[in-house]
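ingest -> validate -> predict -> emit
validate: passed (alphabet ok, no gaps, 232 aa)
predict: started
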Amino acid sequence: MVKKMHYDDILEELKSLANPRAIEGMVRYGITPERTYGVSIPNLRKIAKEVGKDHGLAQKLWTSNIRETRILASMVDDPELVTEEQVEKWVHEFDYWEICDQVCQNLFTYTTFAYQKAREWSKRNEEFVKRAGFALMAWLAFKNKNAKDEQFEKFLPIIKRESTDNRNFVKKAVNWALRQIGKRNLNLNTKAIETAKEIQKLDSKSAQWIASDAMRELTSEAVKKRLQKGEK
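emit:
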């Protein structure tokens, strides 16, 4: 039975789980929210499970602008009730990589307009909006098991187009999207490797890194064996 937790209960729970030492470690990995309790993701998932889906509560948690409340907002919100207006508002408030990736993973991926937003945001200049576009591509490739190859093939020219962006959080997301698409099946593996080879020819350090790193994984024996096994 789902335990009904209210906003104040959640804040008390977060305070009880506060870990100042974890905050120090977060900074080293570029996790730099304005306010945080240092609560781990597994503990946040436990709280979210107790809360259940609650769209109204998610809005209040997001507004609090604490790392943990914002991640929880993405975990407890109902994707069927999320509007394009909401995702546009939230994505513009991303200011470090973890919140971007968590919200894309937990919520945005499950919205009906996830593929549309991936394409739209990939063209945007704001660093974490653009990262969100490619994070969505990566999570969709990983999570959406029944999607057709064509949906991911459409992302490959976009990945090539944006591979020259040398901003760290963008190029890592571009690389991530390319690798995840290439690990879905043998067909997409072949097409992702072809894209990586095209990217490798571009006169850009960022593109060179994206291509070589992706090729290393996508042509590895481990990936080939897993994909061949999956095709049987």
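The chain has 15 helices and no strands.
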